[in-house]
TrEMBL record:
Pfam family, one: DUF1949
Listed GO CC annotations: cytoplasm
Name this polypeptide is given: Impact N-terminal domain-containing protein
All residue ranges annotated as the Impact N-terminal domain in the record: 57-160
Similarity field: Belongs to the IMPACT family.
InterPro entries reported for this sequence: EFG_III/V, Impact, Impact_N, Impact_N_sf, Ribosomal_Su5_D2-typ_SF, UPF0029_Impact_C
Source organism of the structure: Triparma laevis f. longispina
Domain UPF0029 residues, every copy: 198-234
Taxonomic placement: Eukaryota, Sar, Stramenopiles, Ochrophyta, Bolidophyceae
PANTHER family: IMPACT FAMILY MEMBER YIGZ, IMPACT-RELATED
Region spans: Disordered: 92-117
Signal peptide: none
GO BP terms: regulation of translational initiation
Amino acid sequence: MLLYVSPAKSFIARTASRSIFVTPTKSFLARSASSSTSSLASTSTLTKPHEANIIIKKSNFIALASPASSYTTAQTFLQTVKTLHPKARHHCHAYHGSSPQTERSSDDGEPTGTAGQPILSAIKKNDLTNVVIVVVRYSGGIKLGAGGLIRAYGGIASTCLIEAEKEVMVIKKELTLKVPSKYIGEVYQLISKHDGMKTEEEKYVGDEVEFTVEVEEERVDGFKEELGDRLSGNIVIT
């Protein structure tokens, strides 16, 4: 079963294979997990969806994890999984996002604290963000107890994430710059030097120009300092 999901579309296609893809966010710079980085402003996410399952006392726990740029996207993924598994007794999930910092979890009918929180803990223990996991349970009729459920949900979520393909993403910060138009050339040089990217077109008001850029979070302080020095303080940064 192949489902392509984006924030704007529910799904595009299905095939006999079993994977689910959610469109990743454009608000971060993704790098291969094999590439080296010492950035303190970096974290990891999934490059593509992954699925894992385990059977415990006749209950089948199926974990489906995916990158998700927002909780809205995560909810779309959750609904897709519910469509895939309409007969499952529970569809428990957790989401951890970075922009803004967001945490959500649901036990979906399981005893409080036995499903959603263990799934969320698995995401955080694996140092991942912008990730959603849905764990569906087909009950086998044998009670597992609170401890058994916590181990089952948290365990299969962790297994799924450990197996999944990952990538490092560098968090970026948006800055609004207002400068005299005569300095625009120097500003663009510094944006390029610090690997920044303009995200909005310039707005001219009199002799001043205003626009928005994105810069890697760990480079923001250096970027601001150099702008101030180069332009002798003739710039407003918000």
